[in-house]
Amino acid sequence: MTSSKEYGSSSWELIVTVDHQYEEEQKEFTLRVTGDLHIGGVMLKLVEQINLSRDWSDYALWWEQKKCWLLKTHWTLDKCGVQADAKLLFTTQHKMLRLCLPNMKTVRLKVSFSSVVFKAVCDICKTLNIRRSEELSLLKQLEDTLKKKKKKDKNNKEPVIEDILNLYNSPVISGSPASPGLFSKTMTPIYDPVNGTPVPSTMTWFSDSPLTAPNCSILAFSHPNCSPETLAEMYQPRTLADKAKLNAGWLDSSRSLMEQSVQEDDQLLLRFKYYTFFDLNPKYDAVRINQLYEQARWAILLEEIDCTEEEMLIFAALQYHLSKLSLSSEAQDFTHESEVDEVEAALSNLEVTLEGGKMDNILEDITDIPKLADNLRLFRPKKLTLKAFKQYWFVFKDTSVSYFKNKEAGHGEPIEKLNLKGCEVVPDVNVAGRKFGIKLLIPVADGMNEVYLRCDNENQYACWMAACILAAKGRTMADSSYQPEVNKILSFLKMKNRTMSPQAVSDPESMDMKPERFVSPRYAKKYKSKQLATRILEAHQNVAQMPLVEAKLRFIQAWQSLPEFGLTYYIVRFKGSKKDDLLGISYNRLIRIDAATGDPITTWRFSSMKQWNVNWEIRQVAIEFDQNVSIAFTCLSADCKIVHEFIGGYIFLSTRSKDQNETLDEDLFHKLTGGRE
């Protein structure tokens, strides 16, 4: 007999669907519950009713209508708002997910569908042996970018199974024994006795990891380039608006995969989202450096970032060099300690471009501020005028550049003084044509003033360009990053110098290089194969002696030198404007760009930002800067939460320092990027 208490007014029936792993059909169970029963009690009742002996520890309740997990097991049904009409699913929190990595390889592994994406990416990166997981995130590929691929799939219906690397033997569960101190700085790198390649030192910390040596090789070493036909099938953005579409699919880091309608065995892209690559270290970052190189390589090949023909040839030469090293028997003889130390010295150049990348010799920063003084040529574009450069005597001091009629007039009042703080600095260089120009876009009340400077040679250009780059960030030449910046610019110019040795042409292996694999389809169409091969081989002479890791770092460095590097585009409508504009978000600034011409209109630095907020009702982002400057815009090409997260994410990353022992303040990240909480 059933007591009358059970059928009292306070109890009701709750239907829960159980998602059994390895079984196709889901089963429904009806539980009689009261509002004061906690979530843990519901799960206990359910497991007792299922009456199956198995490990239920990974299971949790998912509320379908509200699209949320009920993970606070001490909360009651009343507190959660669960009533008799609720559809609950009892399912595993960790599910299979296919991830397309920056090197276009797909890995299949178990990922937490109940943790926020920020935490899930952290766990994924631990499995893949990638440090600094906060720089990466997950991206949904949008339908527009898949159209070309679908045409190809119709001709080839069989799935390419061998391209998927299965890592599902070891689920990515946070708090696993491998987690504590996983990426300690004190680890000693270990080298494979067979081929000398560095086995990532973390590998010895967890013998049951799915990332065995062969799998690590797939992730840490680049593989032959795809054919030109395959490249032509892939989506290539043609306009800045197309580039904005690519950035619409970033997942919300503050919500879980399940909350964002990601299903089991879906495919997502794992990509470097924030272009601030902190503390790159060849001893521990074999996978990270390779994946970063691959993301840069594909961005160049698919023209997601613009570069000149001269720069394209440098990228092609480095790719050709890396493909030769990967295929040769001496592929991995780059790992001797002395060479790793040399590469570490080059890494300071990579950090120079980041706001936080300072060296230890702080004494340099408090001495007298040096100045540059030299004859340069200047041109200010005006309508209906020829591009005529006129020589002046220039003096660069602090963050300003002044110019005078001649050297003798240098002690008097300048013709004009240009304050470069917050300006855009764009290289205007053609080494073959002996053109060393600097394009300055200087912010003024109604937009940007264009000024062109022309230098006489490489050394003069490197010194003045480095000074302009630092001044734009509000730094002077006394800053310790000035000389490394000069050296970086000189090394990039040296790579652009083309010198051809007769041996290179006569090498039969070189002539069979298939040059179309190393350049974007647009450049491949421009030249005959033999012409292209010759030009790549000319550029290759400057990098032919580089070891593998250094070549990858040089590629990343050259990528960082491109004017468009690190800019993520969105189509926005500014408050009070009648037309759409583009917003470029970088690690240290926001740029308003004319959608029709692609020209920068205004730049706002994060360093002068006072506060920003989002009006979630009208989906408007509002930002206040120093000197009573305020802007507001709505985002048209993506959810405004994505833009809000980019701004907060870059500010969060600027707080990192090497003293933090690699621990992340996850709460601070969510405070800066969460928005709604």
UniProtKB/TrEMBL annotation:
Q: Which GO terms describe its cellular component?
A: cell periphery; cell projection; cytosol; focal adhesion
- Pfam families according to UniProt: FERM_M (PF00373), Kindlin_2_N (PF18124)
Recorded superkingdom: Eukaryota
Q: Which residues form the PH domain?
A: 377-473
Q: What is its main location?
A: other
Q: Indicate yes or no for the key word tRNA processing.
A: no
Q: Which Gene3D superfamilies match?
A: Phosphatidylinositol 3-kinase Catalytic Subunit, Chain A, domain 1, Pleckstrin-homology domain (PH domain)/Phosphotyrosine-binding domain (PTB)
Key words of the record: Cell adhesion, Cell junction, Cell projection
Location(s), subcellular? Cell junction; Cell projection
InterPro entries named in the record: Band_41_domain, FERM_2, FERM_central, Kindlin/fermitin, Kindlin_2_N, PH-like_dom_sf, PH_domain, PH_Kindlin/fermitin
Its BP terms in the Gene Ontology are: basement membrane organization; cell-matrix adhesion; establishment of epithelial cell polarity; integrin-mediated signaling pathway; keratinocyte migration; keratinocyte proliferation; negative regulation of canonical Wnt signaling pathway; negative regulation of gene expression
Q: Name one GO molecular function term.
A: integrin binding
Q: Which CDD domains match?
A: FERM_B-lobe, FERM_C_fermitin, FERM_F0_KIND1, PH_fermitin
Record's keyword annotation contains Methyltransferase? no
Stated family: Belongs to the kindlin family.
Q: What is this protein called?
A: FERM domain containing kindlin 1
Give the originating organism.
Answer: Chelonoidis abingdonii (Abingdon island giant tortoise)
**Gene behind this protein:** FERMT1
